[in-house]
Structures are given as C-alpha cells and as structure tokens.
User: Fold this.
Amino acid sequence: MNKARTPYHHKRVLFKISLFFSTLLVFMSPLLAYSQHDIEIADSIKNRDLNNNLLLIHGLTNRHPWSEEFLDRALSLWGSKHVFAVYTNSSETTYKKLIHSKIIFYCGEDDSDAGDASIEEQVELLHRKVQILQTNKTLGKKFYIIAHSLGGLVARRYIYKYPDVVKGLVTLGTPHHGSALADNFEWAGFFLGATDAINNLRPSFVELFNDRFPIKSSPLADNGKIYTIRGDCDGYDCFGWAGELLFGWAFIKLSTGSDSDGLVPFDSAVIEDAIHLGDFPDFSHIDLVEKPAVVEKASEYLLNTK
Assistant:
C-alpha cells in the first residue's frame, strides 16, 4: 500500500521544480536576450527592398580596416552578396570573401596604398571600382554608403560628381571640419606617402570643401539623407595600429582642449544639415570600424527603419 504524501514531501518537489526552472532561466537568459534583439532587428528591416546594396569606403591609407565582426553584422542586416568594400588604389582586382556562410565582394587590394591620394583622385578611383562591381558583380545602379574618416569626404564629393546614385550616406568619425593633426608634422609621419590626402584634411581645406559641396544641396538619389556617427575615447583606452590614436588624442586635447576619438575632434565629426545619429562613448576612431553596434545603428537608418 502506498504511503500518503506528506506536506513536507510536496514542498520538496515544488522546491526542486522551482530550482530547476530558475537555473534554466539563468543560463538561457543571455541567449533569449540576444535572440530577442535579433528578432527586433529582423522585424525592423523585414520589409526592406532586397535590391538595397551597401558600399563601404575606408579612411586614410586604409590603416583602420573593417573588422570581421563589423562585416558579419553588415551582411546579416543587408544580406549575402549585398555588401561591397572598395579600396581606393590602382588595383582593379575583384574577389569575394565568405564570412559565416555569407558573401561580401571586394574591389582593389587591401593595402596601405589605398586612401593615400587626394580626395579628387580617390573619387575617380571609387567611380571606377563602382563601375567594375556593377558590371562584374551584383552592385546595383543605386546604393548606400557607410564611410569611415577621410572616406566620408570622398563619399560626399562622389555624390556631387555622380548625382542621383547614392541613396544615403553615413559617415563614421569623418573630419567634416578637418583636423589640426593634419597640420602637425610628427603625426603626419605615421602616414608616410599620403601627403595629398593629409593636405585635404587640413581645416583650411575642408572649410573651402564645405562651401563648394554643402550637405544641404547634396544630390542624393531618392531623397536620401546624410548622417553622422562619432566616437569619443579617453586617450588611455585608444592606441591604433602604431600609436597614432594615443598621440592624436593627446595633441588634440592639449592644443584645443577638445575631446576626440583619437584623430577627429568632437565637433568636427558632425556638420550642419547632416542628421547626427549619436555618439559612441569609449569608442576610438578604430572602434568605429570594428564594433558591430556601429554598423547596426547606421543600417537601421539607411534602411529607413527609424
């Protein structure tokens, strides 16, 4: 004959069940949170035009390359074969790379010769790469751009020279008002061979550039907009590929008193008539091309989900 279950026994059973589900929740909550986040992102872009393509433009001498995590997130948001990266050098080599089963297309060699020419020269190199990707790969006639640093000025000039092609632009740490670092001989030494590009970063040059190519009149396609994103590091937490960020941060702080991302003064990374999407505290100039959160923020706006 079965013994009667005591209240104590029932309490033990309930306690074990409660403990099991509590433990399960602790281990599953990070996964659930991540999945929910991805669901929200997916829902926000599920109605996007599948013909949308994203073009990535690097900065000065390509010293701060896109990270694999950044590219992986871009591919997740835009889709395999919908993300393209160009290098503004003489190479017209095209190739593809597989990142977590998703394909990104490239044009040009990934080296430090990219991005060392003047803005005007880089615009023509960019135009040629765009033509190649449109002919030989899947880049459409119209596309969006995310550009880093000097690449943002190159993109702005490209928009004026080749109107009604770019549907929207997000600049990451672009010196829209130049940087005093371009007038500093020691800092320029980090980028030997890039004299023309560095001269185009001088505040005096960029002031004239803004007069000639104002944001407000930019001939974007389909009523597109230009957006900005900026970083803000604290010096001790930024270094760069050879110490240029640490040097840059100290020089800008001591000479102007301004915060910066290590290369671009805080106020220079924004510009009138461009929509500022926000700041990333503790993100250095190089973090802007490495952290997935940056491309996520930029893509949400380019895809008209905000």
About this structure: Confidence is low (pLDDT under 50) at residues 24-37. DSSP finds nine helices and eight strands in the chain. The CA atoms of residues 116 and 192 lie 9 Å apart.
